[in-house]
Design a protein that fits this description.
The complex is a heterodimer of chains A (303) and B (164). Chain A is an all-alpha fold and 303 residues long. Chain A has helices at 41-63, 72-99, 115-121, 141-162, 168-196, 200-213, 225-233, 243-257, 282-297. The radius of gyration of chain A is 20 Å and the shape is globular. Chain B is α/β, with parallel strands linked by helices. The chains are: A mainly alpha (303), B alpha/beta (164).
């Protein structure tokens, strides 16, 4: 009795869904998204964008390895990591939109685009709040591993603390994320060690990769006013408090690998702003163009 | 309409990526409740990015519609986070019968999550020949929840569901 008129009927709950969406309309369907007492909805929404954009932009970068990685196992591993982060991004962007719909860019009347997709595909560069570490091109596999180690060490430390958020939705997203990012960090750490102790060439590339990534390390621990508010109101984490913990874990990997911290100057702020304030690197515009072009061409696209 | 029937129907819906498991065996199906004509089915994602959620939702809606339940609301529950510890004994048997190694106890961390620079050591046996001489080939596999192994006894590769 469930004869399908269209091949998509078996896949999609609704006969007409937005053409580029993820089809499970709302990853927070049925989840209580009430704002906790004492929490500013706008700050909560912006904070969710920050953590969601870190995951979204880095997921997009990592997914560019699909079918290009050195071997099938690494291809699958990087795609899996990208998928985990995309899932975290969806939940966080949906949480942002549920907290304060003012963060969602306006779309044409009657547009079928759900809020999480509107946030991903229809925001301009300055509206993104991710740290700049996630933006540059992947480079070779060694650069990728160096960045994955730094990013997943930072994110795991952050998510571990975020489990105590007074926003039950953020706490739940963090609790799930910790389990996932634990695998990402171990993966990166093991490859870091392997490349550092591998051949002269693998070590040379790894050191070059770490030096490329390192200028964007300091920014991870610079506190944006929204993060101060998040910490004060109990729903988020002040990243300056993560520096020691992240440093200790990285030191463990670097020491085991016989690698020293690169001696390079941090990338500075632009007009006083960094990634969390909407100022990004040159790579960001090209990344967004690739990620958003199809959706922007068809804001009313249905199938 | 009987809630018992709805629960039985929902419990028999299978996972789209591991169809030897029902959603109930996998621990993804959390609750089925009824309010008048409306059934509310609660499911929880295995991993944040689990792409099977949409298919699970549609399969639940279709199967329940087959049995006359026309108003089905599928909801997501994020707390508590899914754990492989929720896979039932029946589900573990079904995995083994289909050549997939079932997960061990999920890791629990009270303090900070320790870094592990050595390959994960798991006590497991080849689901085909039973040999304990198995080698991890990758911590990531065909789906987010699986690692890849190779048996040194029968030389066959196999999937292992990672404990989370």
């Amino acid at each position: 009795m469930s004869d399908h008129d269209s091949v998509y009927d078996g896949l999609l709950g609704d006969s007409e869904g937005w053409a580029f969406g993820t089809s499970f309309e709302d990853p927070l369907a049925g989840v209580d998204t009430t704002i906790p007492a004492g929490v500013d909805a706008g700050a909560l929404a912006t904070y969710c964008l920050m953590l969601g954009d870190d995951a979204l932009i880095y997921s997009h970068r990592l997914s560019q390895w699909t079918s290009n990685a050195p071997d099938l196992e690494e291809d699958i591993a990087l795609a899996n990591i990208a998928l985990d982060l995309l899932g975290q991004a969806r939940l966080l962007l949906a949480r942002a939109a549920a907290a304060d719909s003012a963060v969602v860019p306006p779309l044409p009347e009657g547009s079928p685009v759900p809020p999480e997709d509107a946030l991903a595909f229809f925001r301009d560069e300055a509206g993104f709040r991710n740290v700049r570490l996630v933006e540059p091109d992947n480079g070779d596999f060694a650069v990728t591993i160096a960045r994955l180690l730094v990013f997943s060490t930072y994110r795991l430390a952050l998510l571990q603390r975020l489990r105590a958020s007074n926003d039950p939705v953020l706490a739940a997203i963090a609790t799930k994320g910790v389990k996932e990012v634990t695998y990402h960090r171990d993966y990166a750490g093991r490859w870091f060690l392997t490349l550092a102790r591998g051949t002269e060439e693998s070590r040379r590339r790894l050191l070059a990769g770490l030096a490329l990534v390192w200028p964007l390390y300091d920014e991870l621990f610079r506190t944006h006013p929204v993060e101060t508010a998040a910490d004060n109101q109990g729903f988020g984490v002040d990243p300056s408090g993560l520096a020691d913990e992240v440093g200790v874990v990285l030191e463990q990997v670097l020491t085991t690998s016989g690698v020293e911290r690169p001696d390079v100057a941090p990338t500075g702020a632009v007009n006083g702003q960094m990634g969390r304030g909407g100022r990004h690197t040159e790579a960001m515009g090209r990344l967004l163009a690739e990620m958003q072009v199809v959706a922007r061409a068809h804001p009313m696209g249905l199938w | 309409m009987s809630l018992d029937l709805a629960r039985r129907v929902a419990a028999e819906v299978t996972d789209p990526e591991m169809p030897m498991l029902t959603l109930a065996d996998l621990g993804v199906l959390r609750d089925v409740t009824q309010d008048g004509e409306t059934l509310t089915v609660t499911i929880t994602p295995t991993y944040s990015g689990c792409p099977a959620m949409a298919t699970m939702r549609d399969d639940l809606v279709h199967r329940l519609a087959d049995h006359g339940f026309d108003h089905v609301d599928v909801r997501v529950s994020l707390t508590p986070a899914w754990s492989t510890d929720w896979i039932s004994d029946e589900g573990r048997r079904a995995l083994r019968d289909h050549g997939i190694s079932a997960p061990g106890p999920a890791p629990r961390h009270d303090g900070p999550v320790p870094l592990s620079l050595l390959p994960t050591r798991r006590e497991l046996t080849c689901p085909r020949c039973g040999s304990a001489d198995v080698r991890l080939t990758s911590e990531f596999g065909a789906t987010a929840c699986k690692a890849m192994y190779r048996c040194s006894g029968c030389l066959e590769p196999f999937d292992h569901v990672k404990g989370i």
